[in-house]
Amino acid sequence: MLAVLAVAACLPGCYVMQAAAGQADVLARSEPIAKLVEDPQTPDALRARLNLVVEAREFAVRELALPDGRSFRRYADLGRPYAVWNVVAAPEFSVMPRRWCYPVAGCVAYRGYFDEDRAKATAGRLAGRGDDTTVGGVATYSTLGHLPDPVFNTMLGWRETRLVGTVFHELAHERLYVPGDSEFNEAFASVVEQEGVRRWLAARGRDAEFEAYRTALAREAEFAVLLRTTRERLRNLYASATPSTQLWADKQGEFGRLKFEYSLLRARWGGYAGYDAWFARPLNNAHLAAVATYHDCVPGLQRELEAAGSLEAFYARADELATLPLAERHSLVCRSGPATVGGLRQAPVSSRSTLFAWSKPVPDAGRIRGACANCRRDAGNSHGA
Which of 184, 223, 241, 345 has the most beta carbons within 10 angstroms of its beta carbon? Predict the structure, then answer.
């Protein structure tokens, strides 16, 4: 199959072939979790984290009525800190990202690479043409159940609620996914994730921990609003008749304002520094072009869950919403219509991990036959999930 893809779908730079080869490598590296758990050579720390994933998956199927498919039954140690690296690019005076189109997959606002150097090389070429670019590492991704998605070593350093929440989130995508509506899809999966984490903690007599989890989610949402607000100001600036020399100065001023407003937000959070790393680099349009907008749909879907009274009824309602035209669906559950930039609909560039990839690099959880020194709860995780 790889040979067919290489001949029939090889775009400039053989991008599709590298993606297919990267996915094939992931599958080749994956091993059954059950086998690893039973293997006496598996480090205790790794075994404990894999057992946690097994428990979370069983909980998702039993208590959340999520699909019992092929995902999260295998483990893949990639020997690197991220599963993929996404390249996002935008013109110097635009927050509308460049888009790339492929057979079957359609058009997306990023290019994903399984090799960091290739991602950086692509970003360098685009920057050489005058674009603003960014390369962001993504710790995990989903094929929506089309392939047996494994648990990656890049996930094992996360705190418990983020690890089990990610299992719930990605299985929710397999339960319902509406093509062309990333905002609704991500919001649906996020609501299921949050309800799943609440039930997970309650079942273990740890209800008090849910408040800390909700606090972290609230910070994430506030940070996303800060970025989207800056993006909107820049969009208006670039649409003005300002001369390019002044435009560049005003652009830098807006990014300076963003940093100042973050300092105020950080102070209101009591000095919480989880997003400081996001600002520890020169910022540009590409960083804002990647901003996800699914937070706008989460409150509406949370209300639907409360009104439904059960997850089964909520799923039925979500299935009903999925059959509606996009604009009608958004008018019912989102604070506003689909996000637009320059009159065109703007969707998140990838999974929820992409937007915040810079806020907390995920540690390499160690080689599978090694010490797995980083298989620990990460109390400093900025995502709180």
Answer: 184
